[in-house]
Fold this sequence. Notes:
Beta-Lactamase, 2 domains, five-stranded mixed β-sheet, 10 helices
Amino acid sequence: MSTADDITRREAIAEYQVVGQPPEPDLEGLVHLAAAICGVGTAVINIIDDRSQHQIAAVGFEPSVCAREDSMCAVVFRHPGHVVVRDAREDDRFRDNPFVTGEVADVRFYASSPLITPAGVPIGTLCVFDEEVGDLSEQDSRALALLARQVIDVLELRRITRELGRSNEQLAHFAGQVSHDLRNPLTALVGFIELASDGVQLGDAPLASSALERADAAAGRMTSLVSDLLDFARVGGQPSRGMVDLDAIVGEVLDDLDTPIRASGARIAVGDLPRVSGDATQLRALLQNLLANAIKFSAAAGGAPTIEVRAHELTGGWRLTVDDDGPGVPAEQRERVFGLLERGEAADVEGLGIGLSTCRRIVEAHGGRIGMDASALGGASAWVVLPAG
């Protein structure tokens, strides 16, 4: 049975992603240097988990895997400090080991330094050995210990580089999401400010005051959106949780979509919507994208769009639908349109194809599902299933 230390070690090893991979050139260079400094023909970097010893780079033989109980390094790697053994046959820790008895090899001289992560977790050794009795000078011992630390430096650099690569991908997606989702409240903000300006010029104080209040609300939603999305990105895409009033959220969304609604003449009917557990900003972005798509694609087909937003209670959750009377989405494209930068056949409609991929990401982060069907109105029906709590 694995101990807590074994589990911690296994997790630390997994972060480095070196077990089962081809030898890393930088690590091979370090074992060659270790063998040369110590004046032996064999050196190896061993990674030791709760079951096996994995030789991830070696000189003098081909790296392989052996059982942990057969490993010489497994006897000492969890203890801090450098180990130097002149003749393993005379050391109680090693004399019966198969690498010493001739069953696997005939090791006599053995020296190793533990590989310890920055978090203090021992994960293996850098070791040198020979079939002749030998020893190390104090200077060579220090050099071997230094090379062991450099092995960890190389592993850490590889790990950080991979994480930066993932972060850059997430950052690119996040930047696209933010710029896309800010477009509607920004348009609303500009429109309300222009309306307020018209009210001032016409001497219509109530119109100017109302428009400025709506502009202030749109600006507040933009600030909230950026702040909450930054928090969302920092915690790796995990939404915050609270009870969200979808009726209120849709009201805010329709205010942000005021400009395209008025420009298209869209008629939008909203049924009674529930309160659900989730992240208010993320769910607002979800509904904003679904409604904006319905308006945009239906208007492109000609005529004033008709759109319905409904909720249907399920066992343990809710099914939300946004139906339109636009051109619809062909059955063979209904899964593909949720991919990043996918827009189906509507190439003549402005947009980058970010919205629906963002919607899927949000819904899945909330433990739900999203899809597309044909609508009874004649167009598309975007549906979302969310847990009630």
